[in-house]
Amino acid sequence: MGINNERDITANLQIGPTDQGMVRIFVESDGIEIPMDFEVDEAREIAEEILAAAAQAAAQTS
After folding, report:
1. pLDDT(1) > 70
2. How far, in Å, CA of 24 to CA of 48, rounded?
3. pTM
C-alpha cells in the first residue's frame, strides 16, 4: 500500500497530551485501536511534517 493508493476505510483520529507528558496519536477503526505515544520533540517534528505536506498539497491544487 502506497501513500497515493486510495482505500475505503473509515477511522477516527484523536490527538492529545497524556498524563505522562507525552503526545498521543490514537487511531481507531473497525474495533482496532492504535495508541502511539511521542516525546514532545518528536510530536513537533510530526507536526512540521504535516504542515509541510499540507503546503505541498495546496501548491499542487493552486
Report:
1. no
2. 16
3. 0.82
